[in-house]
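debug: dumping io for the single-chain case to check the tokenizer round-trip. Nothing else runs in this session.
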Amino acid sequence: MDRLNVNQPLDYKKKNNLKKAPSIWRDAFHRFLKNKYAILGLVILTFMFLFSFVGPYFSPYLDAKIDVSKGNQPPSAEHWLGTDNLGRDVLLRLMLAGRISLTIGIAATLIIVLIGGALGSIAGYYGGWLDIIIMRLADIIYAMPGLPILIMLGAIMSDLKIPPSQRIYYVMFILGFISWVGLARLVRSQILSLKEQEFMLATEVLGLRDSKKIIKHLFPNVLPTVIVSATLGVAGAILSESALSFLGLGVIPPTPSWGYMLSAANNMIDFAKRPWLWIPPGVAIMLTVVAINFIGDALRDAFDPRQKI
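debug: decoded output
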């Protein structure tokens, strides 16, 4: 059998049916595409993004002013989802609210990845007293009841009279800050295992700095776990924001969000006689969260080495 010479032309490799080494990313991508629920989730999520970020530009009511005389009109040819109590088009409000809810979900998840990924990597790599401090801090935050803490912080923001335009940023940071613990623990456990592998011993021989070892060699190997956790984290952040806004402690008017639109169900008259005010945002939240969970579950299965190609 001929030996492989790296200097031999590509035609030689083709004739001898030489194949590239399997890639975890390529294999995971193929497994992901074979999952029908993943494709359904992608279709739904793509539609929700286009609906929220592109749809408003096609609405004839984007620059319309408040008109109370047209308030609480049922769905019609003019207003497909009716109007709210101020005469605003509910369909347009649903699109604009989707921008806020999706943005908060993604931004909060990015904060989770930054904090959880960094602290988990440091704790797993260095160990010792740094590991003890970070993990004890994680235990303290994990022991706190999530929803009551969110409600308390939302009430504090209301008492401080934070402007609606700035409140969205506080909500993003709060959701991210109290939710990084799970990811940090996952990353730490992966780092603890990986730092004993042979490729890490090679980095010791090369004399690389600790930051380069973590960023270029360790963290890329835990990236699949981070991606799966982050995907599911978006759904959790959207639900948390919706719960806060539903209680009047998250995003407040004039900034719309799906959770705030759902608060119309707090009014018995609106709940019983004006379902077009609260059913559409409820359906939007449900579809988005289900789609993200489909994608997250499919990513988890795709990156699972026990799955067959």
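debug: round-trip ok. Residues 1-21 have pLDDT under 50 and may be disordered.
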